[in-house]
Amino acid sequence: MPANPRAILGFVFIEEASLKNYDPCKFLNGLFDLENKVAVIIGGAGVLCGAMAWGLLEAGCRVALVDSNRKKADAHFQRWKSPPEKAMFFKADVTQRDQVAKIIPAVLEWFGEIDIWINGAGIAPPKPYLEIMDEEFEAILNVNLKAVHFGCQVIGEHWVNRGKKGCIINISSMAAIRPLSRSFVYSLSKAGLLNLTQNLAREWAPHGIRVNALCPGFFPTEQNRQILDKQRIEAIMRLTPMARFGNSKELIGATLLLASEKAGSFITGANLVVDGGFSVMSI
Fold first, then answer.
1. Active-site residue flag, 129
2. N or C: which end of the chain has fewer CB within 10 A?
3. pTM, two decimal places
């Protein structure tokens, strides 16, 4: 008979009174507390970043959608029924440093703070490698990599100079870790983004700034529908253990984890993959 009759094989049973007082919702709310945090979402009018922004909004954040398309952003706001004090739009061409720099004072004037910064703008025009023109090459790198560099630099400087902690989430891609056909320059840009993420995570950890990448697998969007022909869809399904495409809302859980100061407090430099198992598929 053990000294503690409630202890058997090293397990201590929780008293019934303790169970009655246990509130799992309170615990989870505390762990993932994002109430009144301010998130800037670059590319927020799009399908994936729009879903991530909605998830942050529902979790208690105030969100600023930065995009070149006001109409799509307004459609999100109407669907979310979000009041002006909870959501704002800022129009910007994020390939221009001066326009990216203007995001910060605009958001500070509206919300007073910035806690989370998501770099999600991206383009992926499909082209055989030998047909890629110099202008197309530069355009893809400008949006997918240079704009991320601008975003990280301006918000990083803002936080470092003020001694403020913060969280950056860069939207990576399966193309960053596995070369994909018909996505040559896109793959190159996303590999560079992942390397930038890891370097900044090391550089800014002493300042309390966490930098991570979120890596979606195959999610239908306006951009990739043009290359999702029957043959490619069959190949994706064959190489995805879950045998389906992702739903944009399935990125919300990963977003909240990375954005949370408590739940994600020791996560930096990571590339969090959400891909239905595509990246681990083998024979």
1. no
2. C
3. 0.91
The β-bridge relationship of strands 11-12 and 7-8 is: antiparallel
Residue 84: give the domain boundaries.
34-277
Sign of CA dihedral 109, 110, 113, 118: negative
What would the two tokens of residue 236 be?
């994706």
Whether residue 21 lies inside any domain: the answer is: no
- Of the candidates 95, 139, 137, 136, the one whose C-alpha atom is nearest the C-alpha of residue 119 is 95
- Distance CA(97)–CA(150), nearest Å, equals 6
Tens-place pLDDT, residues 168-211 = 999 999 999 988 888 899 999 999 999 999 999 999 999 999 99
What is the number of structural domains in the chain?
1
The continuous run of DSSP H or E covering 167 comes out as strand 166-171
CATH code of the domain containing 197 = 3.40.50.720
Six token digits for residue 191: 């590999």
d(CA 160, CA 172): 24
Q: Which of 186, 204, 218, 278 is catalytic?
A: 186
